[in-house]
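REQUEST FORM: STRUCTURE PREDICTION
Request ID: SP-0412
Submitted by: Lab K.M.
Chain count: 1
Length (residues): 179
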Amino acid sequence: MPEMPVAKSLAQTPEAFVSDKMITREVSCAVKAGKLRKLASRLSTHNMTEPSETVVARNLWHIVAGYFSGALIADRTALENAPANDGSACLVANVGRDIKLPGYTLRPRRGAGPLPTDRPFIADLFLSSTARAYLENMRPSRARRGRWPKSWRFPTAQTSVWDTSTWAAGNRGPKKELP
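STATUS: Completed
RESULT:
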């Protein structure tokens, strides 16, 4: 999928996009006219037929970049290269408010932004370097209000070799099924 340029009109917007001040009025009129569908706060799509979760899943990282330009994909999301099983995507950004999307929750936190060792990712996002991702995940975290914890729960020293290799292979429980 190509990089998302700053849209100056609805004709230049991708399938799912986060509106900005330049196109807010045009988006609002198009939603009222039935030409666009609103998926979440500031998030709209041209796709009127597919389920919202499918549209968001296909465009997730471009949507994240629309809400949090220049953000760092961090914590367990950086190690797994995907949102957690409950749909949580952990980020480091200047804004600290969770954003709920159909099937996903963007969970930003404040912290050090991208470092020279972090890798450029999709559409103005960065992915934590492997070393940074492991260090971030060594920090204890807990699940709150039914959400997955932001960091992995690494196996303990008492864990058997088989359990550790199963964990390392990615068998960490049931995966969230996409529509």
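NOTES: Confidence is low (pLDDT under 50) at residues 1-6, 154-164.
Reviewed by: T.R.
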